[in-house]
Backbone:
């Protein structure tokens, strides 16, 4: 996982150690955790969006074409999308192959 | 000029929170704090205080509600005592860490067991290190004034820390005293509306209370420690401003007949008035005894204390709490540590008295002073001892 | 019934909300059903919210300093007090709006906790907040054990389940108590809205979350939150198991609106509980007798629920039937 450090002096901490940049977890590339990746066969895809709605890691986003874009920076490779796809359009492929 | 009225000190505490235009009060009843919350709920019910009164199901939730409302930007007040303060313990650490400037009155009372509703300082002394500013009132007027002062200090952008104002349960909370009550408009001149610096607002999302990994935890603690230590100048300045507005002067340390004193008696809270009588009597007998009391306990007023102790040969410290298995009462161990290494380090002796509502008499103060003098002459004495305890 | 429910505009599979209140990069385990359930609930409630979180998996995976996965204001104070902190936020904003110091605008105040933070250590604070009638939504994300500390049993752990503090052994078959009926406890506070939900039924979950946010007063959501790590379940099965839990009546879906029980997913022919248990390592040690015992209990509990729904005047016009 990408190392993002918290090494700053105490004077520079926000009030109450608060984090003022919303959604800054995007700096953590959790895609590093993955050993398998989902690959979508767009010939089989019916654009139902199950991969998008069932993804715990929010790695699918709708495209104007109706298909869904996969984001390898964050996908942990859990395989829910492949398992839930009603048309078996998604297959899990071992990373590095 | 505001006029003096005879009023129960608990009710005066509620009136102070009312005059400060508190937005939220969350509290749970516990003897001897009950009159404070009862009267606040009356003030809200009568429309005299425009606040949300949250009648929580426990003190743990009282403090949790206070943290939530303060983080939402509301001026927040609560009051508790004894077991209630102990139940809050977990959240007491988190309130300063999140920089929520809550003001809390603690009607000091003994801790179980055995269960005791009566006064001592066991409750507050168990909470010395939680990161709150802590003041101790001696009389009803001081209770009222310290609460107004507390809001001003707590909400100062350079502080933003919670404050506990301590008053002795029953012996102070339940007595009727003549008190000069400031009205809301009079208070407004001194206490500006609360401007939160970090607030939960959908327009500007912030994450409050994140996980502190080892890379940041020490810095987070350092920040609170620096703020608490640094708050002393704000505390003192706010007292000076208070004097300008209302004519009553407060300092971190109060002394009585210290000039020429060789022996000093150190107390906290409202027993000082009995101690003054004892001091007067001892001077009459030719003993050179002064009296010192802490009004500000956290942050510890080190320089002021050391300055006050210059030339003093013997110090007798009275604690109203016991530190089981330790080296003496909490005040004693702390002041002895504060004097260690100073040029003319006095001999310091500790006494524990007045636990769980046991009376502390003029004679007992005299006994402490005489014992301290005797031990000092001998060059040794017990580490500390309990006064007024039946040995058999 | 709250006016918001009478004119309620449902989400449909075609009109799911696009908004995300959680960001990528959170540190949940692979296939975490809890963060999935949370993501769905948050999507349904929109941007105008403030969240008070209990200590737990969701707190720790979203907030290690200096990064946050939160796109909405969020506060964590302690383990047992999410409902009390939310009460304070609600009370504070109410006072400030009345006094004209912040704009008058209703904001959804959300308290969230796991099953431990809800049914065990946080039960008192939750009961207090529900009883006082604060305008807030409480979400219990039920993964049936203390997962954050390493899978210890809670009062919400199901009968027979293996956890690190309910281990099967010579004298034990795992958890020896039945799962606490937390929704029934919440319902006993006579709050205006309560629902159970499962991430497998995402439109149902999101509609319930939206209703909970719209209704004035306290609302309680009890959300099934599969934990592949703690349940010894293949991560890709997180949604599947959420579906099976409903199809076997292990986790029935219903609402309680003003005291009236409404089944939102009627199961005509339930699947045997064994289908559900066999996918999870936490139940692997169970023998036929225990499985039978569990089956009987599930059937009895479901029948009791059906009876309650039958007694209710309001019929679930939205209920879907599943074979």
Residues:
């Amino acid at each position: 996982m990408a190392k993002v450090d918290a090494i700053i002096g105490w004077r520079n901490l926000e009030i109450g150690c608060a984090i003022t940049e919303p959604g800054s977890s995007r700096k953590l590339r959790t895609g590093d955790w993955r050993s398998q990746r989902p690959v979508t066969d767009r010939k089989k895809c019916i654009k139902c969006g199950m991969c998008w709605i069932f993804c715990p890691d929010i790695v699918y986003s709708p495209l104007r074409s109706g298909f869904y874009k996969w984001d390898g920076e964050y996908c942990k490779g859990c395989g829910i999308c492949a398992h839930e796809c009603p048309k078996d359009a998604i297959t899990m492929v071992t990373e590095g192959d | 000029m505001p006029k003096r009225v005879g009023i129960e000190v608990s009710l005066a505490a509620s009136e102070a929170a009312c005059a400060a235009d508190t937005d939220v009060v969350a509290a749970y009843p516990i003897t001897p704090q009950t009159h404070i919350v009862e009267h606040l709920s009356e003030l809200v019910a009568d429309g005299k205080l425009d606040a949300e009164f949250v009648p929580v199901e426990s003190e743990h939730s009282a403090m949790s509600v206070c943290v939530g409302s303060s983080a939402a930007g509301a001026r927040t007040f609560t009051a508790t005592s004894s077991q209630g303060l102990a139940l809050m313990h977990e959240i007491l650490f988190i309130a300063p860490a999140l920089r929520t400037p809550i003001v809390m009155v603690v009607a000091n009372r003994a801790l179980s067991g055995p269960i005791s509703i009566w006064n001592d300082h066991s409750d507050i002394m168990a909470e010395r290190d939680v990161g709150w500013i802590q003041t101790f009132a001696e009389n009803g007027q001081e209770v009222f004034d310290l609460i107004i002062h507390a809001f001003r200090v707590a909400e100062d952008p350079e502080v933003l820390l919670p404050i506990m104002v301590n008053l002795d349960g029953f012996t102070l909370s339940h007595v009727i005293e003549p008190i000069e009550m400031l009205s809301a408009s009079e208070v407004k001149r001194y206490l500006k509306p609360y401007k939160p610096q970090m607030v939960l607002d959908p327009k500007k999302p912030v994450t409050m209370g994140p996980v502190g990994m080892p890379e940041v935890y020490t810095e987070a603690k350092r920040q609170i420690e620096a703020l608490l230590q640094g708050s002393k100048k704000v505390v003192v300045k706010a007292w000076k401003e208070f004097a300008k507005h209302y004519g009553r002067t407060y300092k971190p340390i109060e002394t009585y007949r210290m000039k020429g004193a060789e022996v000093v008696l150190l107390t906290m809270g409202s027993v000082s008035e009995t101690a003054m009588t004892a001091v007067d009597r001892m001077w009459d007998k030719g003993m050179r005894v002064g009296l010192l009391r802490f009004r500000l306990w956290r942050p510890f007023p080190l320089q002021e204390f050391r300055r006050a102790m210059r030339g003093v040969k013997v110090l007798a410290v009275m604690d109203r709490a016991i530190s089981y298995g330790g080296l003496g009462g909490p005040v004693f161990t702390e002041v002895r540590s504060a004097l260690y290494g100073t040029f003319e380090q006095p001999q310091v002796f500790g006494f524990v008295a007045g636990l769980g509502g046991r009376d502390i008499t003029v004679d007992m103060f005299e006994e402490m002073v005489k014992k301290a003098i005797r031990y000092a002459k001998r060059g040794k004495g017990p580490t500390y001892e309990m006064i007024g305890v039946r040995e058999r | 019934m709250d006016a918001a429910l009478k004119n309620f505009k449902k989400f449909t599979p075609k009109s799911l909300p696009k908004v995300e209140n959680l960001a990528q990069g959170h540190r949940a385990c692979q296939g975490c059903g809890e963060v999935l359930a949370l993501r769905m609930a948050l999507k349904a409630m929109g941007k105008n919210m403030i969240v008070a979180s209990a200590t737990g998996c969701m707190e720790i995976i979203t907030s290690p300093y200096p990064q946050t996965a939160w796109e909405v204001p969020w506060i964590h104070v302690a383990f047992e007090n999410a409902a009390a902190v939310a009460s304070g936020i609600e009370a504070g904003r109410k006072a400030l709006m009345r006094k004209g110091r912040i704009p008058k605008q209703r904001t959804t105040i959300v308290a969230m906790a796991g099953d431990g933070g809800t049914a065990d250590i946080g039960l008192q604070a939750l009961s207090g907040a529900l009883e006082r009638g604060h305008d807030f939504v409480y979400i219990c994300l039920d993964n049936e054990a203390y997962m954050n500390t390493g899978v210890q049993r809670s009062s919400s752990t199901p009968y027979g389940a293996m956890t690190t503090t309910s281990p099967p052994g010579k004298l034990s078959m795992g958890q020896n108590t039945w799962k606490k009926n937390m929704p029934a406890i919440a319902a006993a506070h006579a709050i205006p809205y309560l629902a159970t939900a499962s991430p497998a039924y995402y439109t149902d979950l999101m509609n319930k979350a939206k209703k909970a946010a719209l209704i004035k007063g306290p609302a309680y959501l009890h959300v099934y939150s599969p934990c592949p790590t703690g349940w010894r379940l293949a991560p890709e099965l997180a949604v599947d198991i959420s579906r099976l839990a409903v199809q076997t009546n292990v986790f029935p879906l219903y609402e309680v609106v003003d005291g009236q029980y409404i089944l939102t997913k009627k199961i005509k022919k339930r699947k045997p509980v064994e289908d559900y248990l066999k996918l999870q390592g936490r139940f692997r040690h169970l023998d036929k007798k225990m499985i039978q015992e569990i089956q009987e209990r599930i059937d009895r509990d479901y029948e009791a629920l059906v009876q309650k729904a039958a007694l209710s005047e309001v019929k679930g016009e939205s209920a879907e039937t599943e074979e």
